[in-house]
């Protein structure tokens, strides 16, 4: 390509880029010119727009018979451009725990975790075995691989034997009265906890899980670890005393004592009088005895 044609292509390309950008200040210097063959040339200019570091203004120019015409102009990312991650459909982006009230997951027709369920045949015994005892009778059921993955996830989770509560527990869940086995193929390995005092209440637990709320265990009775403290006498406390009552009590005490002394003296006088009467009676009896003896 001759110098004249090259200058023509660059001038036409820059005019197209400025028109696309809307402002000449957003267009930087020339980054390169690439001939694509058959008269098609791509011209790139640096983009000076904020937030578009590493992006280029690109113009495709067609050169025919010495004349240049613009095919298209666009802003494209360069090798150092900051790009958004590859778009992933919402059905593939959702993860366990993302589901909120009111949200509905999309139907996955080819879910690899599921296999076709059992279709009733009309045979009562055969259908009863498949539908009621095996838990089938649904359009789709868990595939064997999915059941193994679920069992492994539950067993290795926070309600399996390796949980801290299970390690510290004295007895496993399988011997607890609050352990309710679940139906189906998980029956021999998992159950539901029905103890409201347990941290696993309402959750699926393994048979060898455990916690401190086991129905058959008893907590060790221990004495208080606090040291015995001696009684504390509060010498700084002030007790209010009614001195008037104390004076009246002290005044009444001599009176009570005097009354007690008088009662004692009276009792002594009565006792002496009683003894005197007894002596007189004895003397009278002696006189009567002497008189009887003289008469004889």
TrEMBL record:
Q: Which Pfam families match?
A: DUF3027 (PF11228)
Q: Where is this region: Disordered?
A: 219-296
Q: Which residue ranges have biased composition labelled Acidic residues? A: 242-296
Annotated InterPro entries: DUF3027
What name does this protein carry? DUF3027 domain-containing protein
